[in-house]
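Build the 3D complex.
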Amino acid sequence: MQLTKQHIADANGNLKGHQADYYYLSQKLIDQGVDVDALVQKVADFQVAIPSWALGAGGTRFGRFSFHGEPGNLEQKIGDVGILHALTQTAGAVSLHIPWDTPTDYAAVKQIADQNGIVFDAINSNTFQDQPGTKHSYKHGSLANSDEAIRAQAVAHNNEVVRIGEKLGSKTLTIWLADGTSFPGQRSFQKALSQTEKSCKEIYGELPQDWSLLIEYKPYEPNFYSTVIMDWGTSFMLANACGDRAYTLVDLGHHLPNSNIEQVVATLMSKGKLGGFHFNDSKYGDDDLTVGSIKPYALFLIFNELVYGMANNPQNPDLAWMIDASHNIKDPLEDLLQSLEAIQEAYAKALLIDQKALEAAQLNHDVVKCQEILQGAYRTDVRPLLQKARLNGGGALNPIEAYRSLKVREGLIGERGKHTVATGL
Amino acid sequence: MQLTKQHIADANGNLKGHQADYYYLSQKLIDQGVDVDALVQKVADFQVAIPSWALGAGGTRFGRFSFHGEPGNLEQKIGDVGILHALTQTAGAVSLHIPWDTPTDYAAVKQIADQNGIVFDAINSNTFQDQPGTKHSYKHGSLANSDEAIRAQAVAHNNEVVRIGEKLGSKTLTIWLADGTSFPGQRSFQKALSQTEKSCKEIYGELPQDWSLLIEYKPYEPNFYSTVIMDWGTSFMLANACGDRAYTLVDLGHHLPNSNIEQVVATLMSKGKLGGFHFNDSKYGDDDLTVGSIKPYALFLIFNELVYGMANNPQNPDLAWMIDASHNIKDPLEDLLQSLEAIQEAYAKALLIDQKALEAAQLNHDVVKCQEILQGAYRTDVRPLLQKARLNGGGALNPIEAYRSLKVREGLIGERGKHTVATGL
Amino acid sequence: MQLTKQHIADANGNLKGHQADYYYLSQKLIDQGVDVDALVQKVADFQVAIPSWALGAGGTRFGRFSFHGEPGNLEQKIGDVGILHALTQTAGAVSLHIPWDTPTDYAAVKQIADQNGIVFDAINSNTFQDQPGTKHSYKHGSLANSDEAIRAQAVAHNNEVVRIGEKLGSKTLTIWLADGTSFPGQRSFQKALSQTEKSCKEIYGELPQDWSLLIEYKPYEPNFYSTVIMDWGTSFMLANACGDRAYTLVDLGHHLPNSNIEQVVATLMSKGKLGGFHFNDSKYGDDDLTVGSIKPYALFLIFNELVYGMANNPQNPDLAWMIDASHNIKDPLEDLLQSLEAIQEAYAKALLIDQKALEAAQLNHDVVKCQEILQGAYRTDVRPLLQKARLNGGGALNPIEAYRSLKVREGLIGERGKHTVATGL
Amino acid sequence: MQLTKQHIADANGNLKGHQADYYYLSQKLIDQGVDVDALVQKVADFQVAIPSWALGAGGTRFGRFSFHGEPGNLEQKIGDVGILHALTQTAGAVSLHIPWDTPTDYAAVKQIADQNGIVFDAINSNTFQDQPGTKHSYKHGSLANSDEAIRAQAVAHNNEVVRIGEKLGSKTLTIWLADGTSFPGQRSFQKALSQTEKSCKEIYGELPQDWSLLIEYKPYEPNFYSTVIMDWGTSFMLANACGDRAYTLVDLGHHLPNSNIEQVVATLMSKGKLGGFHFNDSKYGDDDLTVGSIKPYALFLIFNELVYGMANNPQNPDLAWMIDASHNIKDPLEDLLQSLEAIQEAYAKALLIDQKALEAAQLNHDVVKCQEILQGAYRTDVRPLLQKARLNGGGALNPIEAYRSLKVREGLIGERGKHTVATGL
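Done.
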């Protein structure tokens, strides 16, 4: 099932209401000195990768409820990303997970991606599960393992993932390392860290010259007492040990309660070491909920730092953006549409912040004014701007409404059947 | 310093921009079926009490930075509330704290309140500090104390507070009980709870027939291992033990990390036991920050439950609303203006939720739609509605701008001098 | 594989070292006024149920690493509990989970239990997963569902579980209700609560007269925004609504960060409403780690309240004790042996607290002394007492050493093969 | 009031009970291969500094309850430390806070310290409060301030503190920087960090060659939205920017909920960057409770890493140990005695861990055995070892009992009067 621009235009119907809204808002913003066209273009240029493992229903350790019409292979997954991109014009990339999505026919996979306007973003390795046929188990660790043979297997897997990525046009390897312990004393913290540093350096050493390495961190889960790469400080230290093309990746859900994530973002960008970003939302832990569904103001504050850094930190690379959520009770595609909207909304609002006025208020220690400036941007209803950005590219006025009126899920069920199960979590 | 309607009208200046915004928004909302006039009226009718102890600079255990022109007595405090109310038309009540604000001349105090359109809302006792001249120390507890003489002194103080409140027209006593322990074993949990229940019943027994008792809860601070009334469950149990006119009071800052406060609100209202609400915001603990400055979406979700309960729970009483924040680095009056705006904003957005559509989506298990409905209301820029509500009552278009252009703080410093220090925390 | 007393006696070997330790410690305690024999007897009498789902390897949503020799059916599970009981003399009960462990041959199951000295403790229903062949899905809730047919199915399942339990001699039904929401607005809190109350009452109404109902609470997971029975207050309210034989069940892992669980225990016991207890330990959330492996002092403080309540709260029923942990990286039986040891240790230390001296210090507000008394008990090395209690019953001096020297796991693998997978989580 | 060895020996009375306990325990440990004499010597050699601000009653923002006989000047404070050291033989250092404890007569202060066997450990600056007579206010920051004059004043204060410390024999400056923000947008994270780095380098540049700089971190309080040096990663980055003699200081209470502090300790020691340690305990936040009163097992796990690092990380310097607690409801001296006991206990238990056996179990992935080894050490009652270490130096068998029987507090009240108030928090 592929959505043409005509399908979407039909679903959009009459645009008069939107045009009035956009006219009203853009006039107000222009009066405030905002370059609205440039802002809309920035929103339109912002492209977020969809992970290949997030197109089916997710679950918890307590079980999983099935969903219908899930993609049964990589080609179908890319087709799903294509649907999202057609509707939103902001999902023009896919992020693969190996071995769940190892291509069998590279040419076919690339062709489908091309047809859908999808590129291959960061590629992800997996050393937190045992795969059929692998020699050693990762039960007691992979890149951090004290057992040299297991560690070598995990390094080799990462190298293999890079070779797969090269064939698809990826330029970035993301390592999320689950290694850690569930009980005090189970492992020497110092040795686990030094093994991990050694492994990261080996992987980095094998990277093609135009590739980057992203090192993710997480405080807990699936290990419940310690994780080797537990926080940004540890990831930053490892990235520095590897070299110039190694960076930290921030996943919104991978923090202890009450963490100030925006400050972490600012710190890493100022040091030129923020390489990637995983979007999701959460209330309790790594809940992997729809972006913006719980703490949208925190997301806006994070985007404020990202916008500032993208403008003022030439030392920092372009970032790899990805959604990393789990779709346990919603249609995965609808869930992702909501996430994409929330990301664009936060980005657009952050772009509305008058950085000069903010800096002046900060230097003047006018705390009340600083808050007024941030809240002034945040309270603005930017939906007409997002619609404009989508419409400019041939996307949907209201993606979820279009998705439903075009009966996309019904079409997918028709093509794939009810009971396919997507690979992944 | 008293702000007249003329002062404020002058500060408002030309209203054309507002009128255009209001017209645009109200037309859109009317098209969606919203009764905009009724909504504006509800916002205008919503009155929040200002606590008498929050008009000066607050501090932490690490110190306090002074602020200029603080009110030096109760009359000046009420004058400050009058300024807030004149500007916002939503702060028409004051909540006194005894003994910090015991009136010396009741007639004078009432006259000043009348002049400023301020009524006396819930009155607060203090048994967490020792006052000069009191016989017994509360170092080891007050209403929960095992020592009968100390407990009796604390009960008597509460009775005295009620008598003071009666003279001013209050109808509600709020008890925030700091009693607890800082070390395991320091006190029997069971005995502390039963003493507290006994004390609450005694206080309740002495209440005038038209008075209510509000019982606040808090997990920790100033005690750091346990607090006798630690959560809503404990408060609810005590309120039930007292009787029909005893209720739980929810303070937004008094919860463990990640608590779902909106669910607590819904639970208490369904049982007819939510009696009061203290507004503030926080990132880490009981930080007592400006309302809406950290988690505005959570505030909106809480107002969604409040709006639902006010419409559907006749068993629940009218609520006592109060701001309970600390103003450590902002001008206290500006800080309160920001809080009042945030409260009205959350209320107005909650009123925009289409409850019928929401219920239908809920019954249909359409989780995506439920979220769309909530976010649709939240993403609306309701500032023109709040302005309309203020202007209808003679308030300021933009309260902080008016406060600054009218040089209110400068006027207060002129009247009071720089170095007064308000009583309270 | 069944461990005879002779097997264990052989593994114990020479007891001289133990006897010397026991003599030294018991003399010291007798000098302090402790009735050591009575204490040892209390420890010996303390029996903890093993849940039938915890005898195989557990996992997380990120995967599961297999373990060898897992029990493949209910009979083998009871055999595993028999091994634990033979070694420790403190695991004389099993807690079944339906439908994972629905007996096919009741007589055979009861016979095996009898042979192993195992009784059937509280029985558990499951309405958080869909089972093959059931008509309705619990994806959107069970006992709290707005859909009457689904709710009725869930109630009927609970009634069926009771009928199964009756045949085995159980007297208690435990409900852990996963119902909740993952997104704001997904469900009306008030309606979900009232549906749940209705369902609990229906189940309670069908209970045999000599049965009790235990209502568990949990703040989050598998739902990530709200859980209907989120805390002790909600469970307590529901238990009160049901009647005298309905109680709250406390699971150590089901609390928000920093919760004071011992205070919850004390509160519930003082009101006669603590019915059951699930042991585990955790650092971050519901990590389900080995009891006592992370916060043993907190466990001791909780036991202090349990000991106090068992002695002073005749209004509270006998408690149903159970371990509820997940064994992701340890041999499940060894993990349970460590948990059982930690429980007995905390209980024995709590029994050592001089309650009269503690009360005197509390009444005297001697906070330092209170702490000295608690720490004095806690710092005592009580292992000789636990050994004595085990040896008196024919158990192992050191259960894990005996388990290993008797090659129990190897025996189980020999009987069952490597690749059985136990039902359950 | 000075305690002589004779006073203490009298208070100790008959040592037969201790000797029997020590004999029993040491024989057991010798059988396990422990060099008991060496262990006792290590415990005896471990010296912890007492901060000069912790000898009076502390409080919270809600108030402070007075205590009697507090030291009224620096000489009396050192006298109090002398009492602690005489009783425990483990408190042979004091850590001063400037300007609270700026000496007026250096010779006299040094003489009193000498008489009491007290040396001057790390010295602390204060730029989180305004002092009478200083030109600029730190309300909006000190070392991180955007205002150059304020920043320079804060740097100069630190330089001045070093000059004071030089006269007393200190070799270490500790910076705890409260700078941060209470509201989003209040300050540029990037600029605050770079200003702080600049200030730290300036201070470091002025340090004498034999001095070290310790940089403390803290996530929140007194600022409630962000702190410039928020975590170990930020402190580590700053220490690296300064140079070889700049290190991170870990305060147990300065972490987000659920932090794995022992892993932070291990990481810093492996990189040679852990310079100091502040002991306290907490349940909710920076509660500053008695060491070991809430989470003694976590303290033991931290000491396990410290012991490992002290033995295996020659790249790491000797650490500055200090207690940093607040004494709100206990006699400060008794509270510190309890803290000192808890520190020694955790250290002694950590020394009991069989590191070779632990490493073997780790390499063998024997998670159960690892836990057994740690718990085996932890469950040992080491009090006789601590007593032995104290008695060897002429200290008290039971410090608190001696303190009480010698009527130390009564003596201090006699000398100082009831109503002195110590400087500090």
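Chain D has 16 helices and eleven strands.
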